[in-house]
Amino acid sequence: MNRNASGGTYLLTMQHPGTHRVFILLGKSILAVLSLTIALLLYAEAYTIWYAEYHLGVPTEAEIAALPATGHLCPLEAGSPYVALADMPLLLRQAVIASAGADFQTRPNLVLPAMAAAIVKGDGRPDTRITFAVTRHCLHALAPDCCRGLDWHIGSTVFMGRLERTLSRERILDAYLNDSYLGRNAYGVAAAATAHFGKPLADLDIGEVALLIARFQTPRPSERDSERRSYILDRMLSAGLIDEAQATAAKAAPLSLIAAPPRNP
Asked: Which among 42, 62, 93, 215 is placed 20 to 30 Å from 24, CA to CA?
């Protein structure tokens, strides 16, 4: 606004005191609305934190820390075989991370500020598939009546952050590989190797490792198994875990799934 215009506004308010009062009242009203909005947002944030942290009954960090340091973390099926992470084939461990969370070992813990910062920077939402899978079956095992519907999404997000603040990434990966349901009543990769391929985990070839990893997303065999195997093999190739010749040979090999055992009548 130029000096003539501002001078005209000043003269207008001087000549019409009522207009000056209107401007003052309008300014005060805007400040009051802004203050009320900020107060409501702070209240909503505080209530959400209280509701998620205390009301839902999500297991605490102390309860998570009290879980076994070795063996099954949150078993959903008693008697499933357990294989320590260090004893699993290296290719399997590396391929799982390459296919379900390439930044799993390096990204910050899952807290909202870190996730928001990654999105703002353009890094995208962190890949949480490994931790989320462990979150899901640990919540079912430790707090089966914790929450439903929208509450479950809030509670699982809180619990997921607590898991990563309390447990090492290696322990979370160990639980992912040993406790996940992989079809044919098999929990964990050791049981799944026997159920799907009829052989020990250590004897799986590259194509079988890829198909086993695909079972984390689709536990039941289907006509798309070859396509899913190829997808995992491509991820393994991109990560430098196998070379082009190995990927091509594994894709060309027939699926080596054994027949499913008959269901109990």
From this structure: 42
